[in-house]
Design brief:
This protein is an alpha/beta fold. Helices cover about 45% and strands about 15% of the residues. The protein has a single domain, classed as Rossmann fold (3-Layer(aba) Sandwich), CATH 3.40.50. Helix 3 runs parallel beside helix 5 (about 110-135) and helix 5 (about 110-135) packs parallel to helix 6. The model has no long low-confidence stretch (mean pLDDT about 90).
Length: about 280
Amino acid sequence: MSRFLGSADGQYKSLKGKRVLITGGSAGIGKATAIGFSDNGAIVTITGRRQARLDAVTSQLKQAYSIVADLMDVSEAKRTIDEAVEKMGGLDILVNCGGVWTEAITGDHMGEQGFTDAFKMHIMTPVQLTEHAMPHLSKNKNGAVINLSSLSAIQVNPDSFAYNVAKAAMDHVTKTQARKYTKLGVRVNSVNPGYVDTEIFDVMVKDTGLTKEQLHEWAKTENELKQVCQPEEIAGPILFLASDAASFISGAHIPVCAASQVQLELEDPTVFHANKK
C-alpha cells in the first residue's frame, strides 16, 4: 500500500514568515518538523544538546538558528526562549518536541528517579517554556503551542510506567493551557504519535535484544496501515495545528497512529516474537 508522507511541503501559506521554536529539533520528529516549517517559509530555531547535530539540520533549512540546551535542566527554559526571541526578533509558534529516554523512564518500576526524569522532560520544562514564551506568542493574538505527547497517554504500555503517566499529564497540561491561553489568542494542542521510526528503535534494540528489523516487523502489526510511521507523518499534523487552517482548534489531542488507539492494548515486542516461534 503506497502512501504520501504527511509533512506539508509549501501548502500552508499562513506559516510564511512565522517565527518558530522547536525543541529537540536535531533529530527524528523535531528535525522533520523543522524541515516542514522551513519548506513553508517559516523562520526556525531548533534546540538540542549537541551543536554538530544542530548544524547538520540548520544547513538544510532556509532561514534557521540553533540553541544548545539540555532541557532536562528546567532552568534552561527561560534562556532558551530569550535567545530564540533575540535571534528571530519574536516568537509566534512553540513546538515542545524535546524528549529523552533514560533507563529510569523506560523501565516498568515505579522508582522516584523515573518519575523525576519523566516529569522534568515532559512536563516541567514544556510548561516553563510555554510560560516564558506566552508574552511573545500572545502579542499578535495568533500564536500556537503544539506539545508532542504520545499514544502512551491514551493507551498504556505497562513496561514504561513513568513515561505513560508523564504523557497523560502532558495531555492535561495541554487542555489546561488551552483554557488559560486561548482567550489571549494562543491555541494549545497536542499530537499523540504511536511508534515512529526514530532513535527510539535504537533504544528498544538495547532493551529487548531484538534487531531493528524485528522491531519494525512488530511495529507494523500495531496499526491498521501495517507500516512503520515516519517522522514526516507526525510533522504534518504539527504544521496543520500551527497554521491558520486550525484556527478554531485548541485543547485537542490528535492521535497519529493509523488506528492503533482503537486496539485493546499494545503487545510487547518480545512477546510478539515469542508467539511467532
